[in-house]
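Researcher: Here's a chain I'd like modeled. Treat it as a single chain, no partners, no ligands.
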Amino acid sequence: MKVTTGYVVKLVKLGFLVAALSVTGCVSDGPKSANSENPKAASQQHIKLALKYIGSGNRDLARVHLDKAEKFKSRSAQLYNAYALLYQSEQEFKLAEEYYQKALSKNKKYTLARYNFAAFLYNQGRLAAAREQIKLVSEDLGYERRTQAFYILGLTQKRMGDNSQALESFEKATQLSSGFPPPFIEAAELYFQQKDYPLSKLALDRFRQLSAPTAQSLWLAVRVEERFGNRDKAASEGLKLKNLFPYSQENLAYQAWLKQ
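Model: Modeled as a single isolated chain. Structure tokens:
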């Protein structure tokens, strides 16, 4: 694997929702006259404003703008996707799925909606369905979040027990982008499991160049250094883990490892 640089993001519930919303940026209200003269543009403007408000947690204003968008141009894939995100943020999961399906039924090539839907399914623990959707996203060569799509695909494959395919997906993600490091730590873990310690160390080092330490990276560093016979270095990484993340699962694993 050719290891490139990147930026680290920890996966959390609804984390992909936030990522998806960030691409909309800040949108001003704009001139009112343009709204009346160009209904399609006005609809898109209200959808962008709604996404902005969903991202900031102001769901009431988001709904106001979605209602306005619907009056200008109803039943667009973009509108359905925005409603899905709104319902997802409100934990109305049945409605969210319904509107994701509507968006993709309206436009099956609307990759942003498919990406959001895949992340939604992943967060719901519906791994087979998430894998199917995110694989389609990864096949869209022009999609700007293709790197993240391969990362999600790898996470899904890993959780389903297919580590070989997961490693391929993480490797693909590292090759596509120099600004997204989560695949590096995941690849490092899988290399370690395969007993390919040099590659594990290389991927881990790249991750650590670009990210603050995490419980996962420190615990892996302990094990990698121990494999290379660097006992002092392993102890140092373990101390960092204990001090920085005392209540993590990784620290519990480290403490149990010390007693062996």
